[in-house]
Design goal:
Layout lengths: L7 H7 L5 H5 L1 H22 L2 H31 L1 H21 L2 H7 L3 H24 L6 H21 L12 H26 L8 H41 L3 H27 L8 H21 L8 H7 L9 H12 L7 H16 L20 H5 L4 E2 L7 E2 L2 H9 L4 H18 L4 H14 L2 H18 L1
Antiparallel strand pairs: 1-2
Helix pairs in contact: 3-4, 3-5, 4-5, 4-7, 4-11, 4-12, 5-7, 5-8, 7-8, 7-9, 7-12, 8-9, 8-15, 9-10, 10-15, 11-12
C-alpha cells in the first residue's frame, strides 16, 4: 500500500530531531520525503480506505515538521546546488497539494469526525504545519522570488477552501459555541493577511513573464487586488477581535481549577474520539503482507493526531491555549452576569466569513499562480494529482506543455483544458507568445527595401559635421567635370 524507502526516512518521521544521516544529505532527504508523501497520499486516494486516509494524515503531519527541520541544512546546499532549491520548491508544492485534500467536507465525512474534532484535530494541524513550512521557504533568501510568490499563491488557494469548513453555515454543529467558530475564523484571517502581504511585497520585485507593458499592467492589477483584499480581511478581523477578546475574558474570570478541569475534559474527549476513529481504521488492515508496516505507521499517525488534537490551535499552531480556553462547552465557575453575557453572544449566532470574500481569496491565489507559469509543477492551481514520486517527475517527460507559450506544463490534458476553458491561462499565454514573436522579428534581417529606408533615415539623422564630408565628396567630381 505504501513504501517508505529505506530505514532512515521512517526514523526521521518519528525522531524528535533530524537524524545525522539526513543532516549530511538534506537534498536526498527532501527527495525521499516528497516521494514517501506522494506515494502515501496517492494510494490513499486510489484505494479509498479509511486506514489509508488515517495513515496519510499522520505522514503529512510529520512530513511538515521534518521539512521545517530541513530548512537550515538546505540553505547551505541551495547555494552550491541550484537543483536543491528546485527540490525544496517541489517538496513544498507536494505538501500544499497533500494538505488541500484535508480542506474538503468529503474527507471529513470519510473519517467520521464531528465538526469540532475535525477542525481541531485534523484541519488545524494540517493547515498550521503546511503554512509554517511554506512561510519558512518564503523567508529563504536563496529561493527565487517567483517561486516564493507561487507558493504563497497556492497557500491562499488552500486557505480559501479551508474557510468553508470554518463556517457554521457550511458545516452546522449545534454543540459548538460561537466562540470556537469566531476563533477559527480569526486565526485563519491572520494567516491569510500575512500571506497576502507577502504576495504584495514580492509582486513589487518580481517581473512577470511576457510582453513588458502587458506584464507590468498585470502586476499592477494584482497589487491593487492584494491591497483591497487585505483591507477587507482586516475589517473582518476587527469585527471578530472584540468577540474573541470578550469570550477570552469571560473564561479567564472563571475559577482556575474549574477552567483547568474543563480543558482536561475537552482534551480527553477529543483524544478519545480521534483514537476511536484510528482503532476502527486499523481493524480493516489485514495482518499479512505489508500490513505490519502500515499498522506500525498507523499507530504513529494515531499518536500524532491525538497530540495535535490536544495541543494544536484551530488554524494557528501558537494559539493552542487560547483555543482551549475559548472552546469550553460549560459555564462552570462563571457568575450569573457573565453567563447572561455568554447567552446573549450565543443568541447572536455564529460568525461566518462572507462567501464572496472567501472566493476572492481563492481566486486571487489562483490568479497569482497563473501569472507565473513554470515547468516545475502542474500550472493548474486546483490540481490534486499526486502520482509519480515528485512534482517535477509528474510534469516531466510526456506531460502536456502549452503549445502557444511553450512554458506552462500540466500533468494531464484535463488540467490544461480546465485552465483554458476558464480562460485563466489565456492572458499570460498571449503575453509570452507576443514577446517571443517580437524577439524573433528583431533577430530576423530586414528586407532590402527596408534596409535602404533605414540607411536613408540614419543619414538624415546624422549631425551636420558628419554630413559635410559626404557633401564635399559629391562636389569634387562636379568640379572636376567643370
Amino acid at each position: 500500500m505504501c513504501n517508505l524507502r529505506g530505514s532512515v526516512l521512517p526514523a526521521a518521521l518519528e525522531a524528535p530531531e533530524l537524524p545525522a544521516a539526513l543532516q549530511q544529505h538534506p537534498h536526498r532527504a527532501a527527495v525521499l520525503l516528497e516521494a514517501a508523501l506522494r506515494t502515501t497520499l496517492c494510494e490513499q486516494r486510489l484505494s479509498q480506505s479509511r486506514t489509508d486516509v488515517i495513515f496519510g494524515l499522520g505522514v503529512l503531519w510529520r512530513a511538515c515538521r521534518v521539512m521545517q527541520r530541513l530548512q537550515e541544512h538546505l540553505r547551505a546546499v541551495c547555494l552550491a546546488e541550484p537543483a536543491a532549491a528546485e527540490q525544496l520548491f517541489g517538496l513544498a508544492g507536494s505538501i500544499l497539494k497533500s494538505a488541500s485534500h484535508v480542506c474538503n467536507r468529503s474527507f471529513a465525512d470519510k473519517l467520521g469526525f464531528t465538526s469540532s474534532a475535525y477542525r481541531e484535530g485534523v484541519l488545524g494541524p494540517a493547515i498550521g504545519c503546511a503554512g509554517a513550512a511554506v512561510h519558512a521557504v518564503v523567508q529563504h533568501a536563496d529561493m527565487r522570488a517567483a517561486q516564493r510568490l507561487l507558493l504563497l499563491g497556492r497557500l491562499l488557494c488552500m486557505l480559501g477552501k479551508a474557510a468553508g469548513l470554518c463556517s457554521s453555515t457550511a458545516w452546522p454543529d449545534s454543540t459548538v459555541p460561537s466562540a470556537e467558530w469566531n476563533t477559527d475564523c480569526y486565526h485563519l484571517l491572520g494567516v491569510a493577511v500575512s500571506s497576502i502581504d507577502g504576495c504584495a511585497s514580492l509582486l513589487a520585485t518580481v517581473t512577470l513573464p511576457g510582453e513588458a507593458a502587458a506584464a507590468a499592467e498585470a502586476a499592477c492589477q494584482l497589487q491593487q487586488q492584494a491591497v483591497a483584499l487585505a483591507s477587507a480581511l482586516q475589517q473582518q478581523q476587527l469585527q471578530l477581535r472584540d468577540q474573541v477578546e470578550d469570550n477570552a475574558a469571560l473564561h479567564q474570570a472563571a475559577a482556575p481549577g474549574q477552567l483547568q478541569l474543563q480543558q482536561q475534559q475537552q482534551q480527553q474527549q477529543q483524544q478519545a474520539e480521534v483514537a476511536s476513529v484510528f482503532d476502527q481504521g486499523q481493524q480493516e488492515v489485514s495482518p499479512e503482507g505489508e500490513a505490519g508496516t502500515c499498522r506500525a505507521a498507523g499507530q504513529a499517525a494515531q499518536a500524532a493526531a491525538a497530540a495535535a488534537a490536544a495541543t494544536s490551535a484551530p488554524i494557528a499552531p501558537t494559539a493552542g491555549t487560547a483555543a482551549a480556553d475559548l472552546g469550553s462547552r460549560h459555564d462552570v465557575g462563571v457568575t450569573p452576569q457573565q453567563q447572561q453575557q455568554q447567552q446573549q453572544q450565543q443568541q447572536q449566532g455564529h460568525h461566518s466569513l462572507p462567501a464572496d470574500l472567501m472566493q476572492q481569496l481563492q481566486h486571487f491565489g489562483e490568479a497569482v499562480c497563473h501569472q507565473l507559469p513554470v515547468s516545475l509543477w502542474c500550472c493548474n492551481p486546483r490540481c490534486t494529482n499526486l502520482q509519480q514520486q515528485s512534482e517535477a517527475e509528474l510534469v516531466g517527460g510526456k506531460a502536456c506543455v502549452c503549445a502557444d507559450c511553450r512554458t506552462a506544463r500540466f500533468c494531464s490534458r484535463q488540467c490544461l483544458e480546465q485552465c483554458w476553458k476558464k480562460r485563466l491561462h489565456k492572458g499570460v499565454c498571449r503575453r509570452i507568445a507576443a514577446a517571443r514573436q517580437q524577439q524573433q522579428q528583431q533577430q530576423q534581417p530586414p528586407p532590402p527595401q527596408q534596409q535602404q529606408q533605414q540607411q536613408q533615415q540614419q543619414q538624415e539623422q546624422q549631425p551636420p559635421e558628419q554630413q559635410q564630408p559626404e557633401q564635399q565628396q559629391q562636389q569634387q567630381p562636379q568640379q572636376q567635370q567643370n
